[in-house]
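Weekly modeling sync, notes
Attendees: S.R. (lead), two postdocs, one rotation student

Agenda item 3: backlog of single-chain predictions. S.R. asked that every request posted to the team notebook include the full sequence so nobody has to chase files. The rotation student volunteered to paste the first one in as an example of the format we agreed on. Action items at the bottom.

Example entry:
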Amino acid sequence: MPQVLKDEVQRRIAEAALRVFARRGFAGATMAEIGTEAGVSTGNLYRYHANKESLFRAVVPDAMVAELHRLLRRRLRAVEGVDDVRKLAADAEFHAVSRLLMAFSVENRLAMAILLGHAEGTDHAGFAAALVDELTRSAIAHFRKLRPGLEVGRVRRAGVTRVYGNLLRAFVAALEEHPDPTEMVQAIRDYERYHLAGLKALFE
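Predicted structure, as returned to the notebook:
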């Protein structure tokens, strides 16, 4: 019985930490607030996690971050040489990876929202900015291959960076605002369609 109780407390702490980190950000969250949200005393919370950093690593684990990065890079590889993903066959690799990424997002909804939008003060503080930079460079390289001679100056590069920054913010908003998986998926897919059409037009 004591072990069952301990596991239950661990679960409540993890769920409370995800909610508080998503609401306050890592920098703004406190162990006291997380303890209150979990229904445990602050002193008891420290029996499970030595500090706020330890708790953050428990709910936003490095393995999850690595898997997200792996899926995103696999998705980028799946569009190599593709001029318009909207015309791909239903069984194309891009769509298969997109479904995996969507399922992963549903499973890790708040952890991903924290990583991509509220990780200031942690080892992953630069993850979102680095991702936007990687997506920008990948998109420019992609369209340069498709359109030899394409010029991408400072202004257009800044525009592409802004497009991906907005995409990431919209993604975080969908994760935070739609706990219902069906609604979350719809919100993400709606914005992705808008994003893909706009990105293609930007390079035409």
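Discussion: group reviewed the output briefly. The chain has two domains: 2-58, 61-202.
Action items: rotation student to repeat for the remaining queue; S.R. to check formatting next week.
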